[in-house]
Design a protein that fits this description.
The chain has two helices and 43 strands. It has a three-stranded antiparallel β-sheet with strand order 36-35-37, with no helix packed on it. It is elongated and about 180 Å long.
């Protein structure tokens, strides 16, 4: 016998074997009302747009009312405790509940639907003092004990056993009160989990209407005071291509419709019902407009897009080799040569339009040697015309774009600047003296260089005149071209004091070295003979000149020196 236990109270329903689940209730309604004898199907005989109870006919088409069953399986409600239902003459007959009496007077016998078996639970209260109920032998003497631990039978649902130390006998425990407030539950005790476990008994909620199946669900918000709820009719045949309805006397019926449906093939769209079945619509468009995927369709999974490495177009005019990267993206590489060879445009590439050439104002070279300061403008290089003038009367000045300025010799009349000649004419690019006497220049300071401003014309040099008129000061003998001597004082001639003794239009200093001093390196003292400091004195000015080094501590020897020039 099973040792599964239960309690009294609502357990009466349990002992009657009426634990009917919501699912089983639906089976009963559907099995007896519509499933038997081929199953009732509603057809639209009256052309009112849908099947109804008035349109029901049997599958054979003979107009007779449909049978409730054909085989015993059609009648089975899926419950154990109410016996096995059978089909008898087109009608279901209720089964005989199992016999759960174990013949032991002190056990509570019941049928447990959840286990599909009978259970006999010992009830120690039915035995005498210091007796226990044994599931196999009935009331027996309680075992002897020294302490509570000797009496523990390891079960939770029969309470905690204790030891009566006076009588040295075990005393049965008191079973937990598992009664709840819901009349539709069997107040069971779960020995495996050591807790009360109320079991819903759907059969206690049935109202006899097959179109309103009932169930025991105390946790539902809509449950009544018994814990019962009314659930949908259960006529849903799971077929989207039938409209399901229920008749209180005959049960469920299903009429064909033309609703949208899903045929299970992911490669079709627009599926629609016809004659109770879902028929395929048109093919699914799997084109993702991506050249980098190979588009296909799988009936089970639908559209799929496999990456490829095909040629493609990335939409950019600035790439020339576009290839799919194997990850669904079109990748471009290599760009067009946008160089137009014009320095007056900034060359670039625009993804939408391709190469662009914007005018700039950069410096450039127009290739014309007759222009200068060339600059870009309007996409063209241009410059200002150069002036080709050599200030020579004896050349004709012009410009050749390829070679630049051209100075062509001419034979124009000219003036050689010599008052002693006449009829001067250009030749070979210079003024050729005409006929006349030689010119002589006065040399007042007898340095062999004359004054260009004082001349005479004579066949030979008069006294005090020379042929060279390049003297810069004819009153100072030391001032003349080619002077190499140095002087510490200036001379005056015409415009003012100057040190330009060699007539070079500049005064050159004699001593220019700077940074003079002494330094030690490797145990030796090395002098730098130069002006101390970073600059040399002006012409005629004094400064400190390093003349050498002393041996003692490498001291610096200096002198005061005047700067000389010529």
């Amino acid at each position: 016998m099973s040792r599964t236990t239960g309690t009294a109270g609502n357990g009466e329903a349990m002992r009657q074997g009426l634990s009917l689940t919501a699912t089983a209730a639906l089976v009963v309604v559907l099995g007896w009302a519509a499933i038997g004898c081929g199953g009732a199907v509603a057809v639209d005989d009256d052309a009112d747009g849908g099947g109804d109870v008035a349109d029901v006919e049997d599958e054979g088409g003979d107009g007779e009312e449909a049978c409730a069953c054909v085989t015993d399986e059609d009648c089975d409600d899926g419950l154990f405790c109410n016996g096995l239902e059978t089909c008898d003459g087109c009608a279901c007959t209720a089964g005989t509940p199992p016999e759960c009496d174990d013949g032991i007077a002190c056990t509570a016998d019941a049928c447990v639907e959840s286990m599909a078996s009978c259970s006999s639970t010992p009830d120690h209260g039915l035995c005498g003092d210091f007796e226990l109920c044994d599931a196999d032998r009935g009331c027996v003497a309680a075992p002897e004990c020294d302490g509570d631990e000797d009496c523990d039978d390891g079960l939770w649902c029969d309470g905690t056993e204790t030891c009566d130390t006076v009588e040295a006998r075990c005393v049965p425990g008191t079973a937990p009160d598992c009664a709840d407030v819901w009349s539709c539950t069997a107040d069971d005790c779960n020995e495996d989990e050591d807790r009360c476990a109320p079991t819903p008994v759907d059969a206690t909620c049935e109202d006899g209407d097959p179109c309103t199946p009932n169930a025991c669900d105390p946790a539902a918000e809509e449950a009544d005071e018994r814990g019962c709820v009314t659930i949908p009719s259960g006529c849903d045949d799971g077929n989207p291509c039938t409209d399901d309805f229920c008749d209180a006397e005959r049960g469920c019926f299903h009429s064909f419709n033309t609703a949208s449906c899903e045929d299970g093939d992911q490669c079709t769209v627009g599926d629609v019902c016809a004659a109770g079945a879902c028929t395929a619509g048109g093919p699914r468009d799997c084109d993702d407009a991506n050249a980098c995927t190979d588009d296909a369709c799988n009936a089970a999974t639908g559209c799929n897009y496999a990456y490829n490495t095909a040629s493609c177009d990335d939409g950019s005019a600035c790439t020339i080799t576009d290839v799919c990267d194997g990850a669904g993206e079109c990748v471009g590489s290599g760009g067009p040569d946008c160089d137009d060879g014009n320095p007056c445009t900034d060359d670039s590439c625009d993804a939408a339009g391709g190469c662009t050439h914007a005018n700039n104002t950069a410096a450039c070279d127009d290739g014309d040697l007759c222009t200068e300061s060339d600059v870009c403008g309007g996409g063209t290089c241009g410059g200002s015309a150069i002036t080709c003038s050599d200030a020579n009367l004896c050349t004709d000045d012009s410009c050749n774009p390829a070679s630049g300025c051209v100075f062509a010799n001419n034979t124009t009349a000219c003036d050689d600047g010599n008052a002693c000649t006449t009829g001067d004419v250009c030749g070979g690019g210079s003024c050729v003296p005409g006929a006349g006497l030689p010119i002589w220049y006065r040399d007042a300071d007898t340095d062999t260089y004359g004054d260009a401003a004082v001349t005479v014309c004579a066949a030979s040099a008069p006294s005090g005149y020379v042929a060279d008129g390049s003297d810069c000061c004819d009153s100072v003998a030391n001032a003349h071209p080619g002077q190499t001597a140095w002087f510490g004082t200036s001379y005056s001639c015409g415009a003012g004091a100057t040190y330009d003794y060699d007539c070079s239009d500049a005064a050159e200093r004699r001593w220019t070295a700077t940074g003079g001093g002494c330094s030690t390196s490797g145990g030796s003292c090395t002098p730098t003979l130069a002006w101390q400091g970073s600059s040399a004195p002006a012409c005629g000015a004094n400064g400190t000149w390093v003349t050498g080094c002393s041996s003692l501590l490498c001291g610096t020897n200096t002198e005061t020196r005047r700067q000389e020039c010529h």
